[in-house]
Amino acid sequence: MNATMPETRGRARGILRQARHLVAAAALSGIAMGGALAADMPEMTLKFGHPYNETHPLALGAQKFADIVKEKSGGKITVQVFPNSTIGSSRDLVEGIQIGVVDFALVPTTNVASFYSPLDIFYLPFLFRDKEHAYAVSDGPVGEKLYADMLEKTGIRTLAMYESGFRTITTRETKIEKPDDMKGIKFRVVNNPLNVATFKALGANPTPMALSEVFTGLQQGTVDGQDNPVGNVKAFGFDKVQDYITLSHHQWAGIMFLADDKMWKELPDDVKTLFKQTALETQDWERKEINAVEEKYLDEMEKGGMTVTRLTPQQAKAFQDAMEAVWDEYREKIGADLIESAVAAK
Asked: What are the residues whose beta carbons fall under 8 Å from the beta carbon of 237, sequence distance 6 or more?
């Protein structure tokens, strides 16, 4: 299902991406240095919601966006950031954008897929070979086509793609090394049919639950395990109520930076440029930050008593093989051509 990406291609993509964002930075510098432009910007206050703890790199990226916008607009544009699902769950935030009560939001692709199903491509289990492959899909032609179609059909604009990283499996009592270890365990999963199907294929008992409810669910034994990237496990304290974590890397968690298109259409061009380029600037910052802290978090978890399991290639293949039925089901639902384009993305 997966193939190793040549190192030279990865470097070439990185250079192209860096060049694109140098151009973005130059555009932002033009806005900042051109006093007349900043002076002409309208005064406005906008709402930015997300479900993440204030210390999470995703939350820090959202706040960084707000801070840069305030600075570059000469203090005229205030972006109020609401973390920790304080103005709604991931689903609530998407609905809020559609009805115009939320201006910006960070929402996992799997939650947005409930409103625009082709986004399930991002959560097709074991689709991505590595993070560079995921970036090639999210930042390249495949992603651009998806976002344009989603905008047309839902009125939701995509400005950037942050990330939580690859998802892991945590449990309270069972060390997970092979698919059979999952059988019968009650796992919290994202409320999306693809996530449910993935865990059913492994023999687990999937239970959809909002992210804000997971810690309590684990603490009270409503569920025995869950799957989330390392950053979420640490930021939400799941390591305090779980004894085992397996680095399964079964799905990549892209976090969409969304905007209300009705709000967007009313903005002056210079404000649109400021928002778009700042979203891309903070996207790159957040990705670097989340990747930098993952090993630190894992080290802290191990020192805190959590058992960390790193799958061998043979063990990982057993999990991949168990996903054949899921791929067969979603090849028709997502579209064979879209899957092929994502697999081939470079």
From this structure: 215
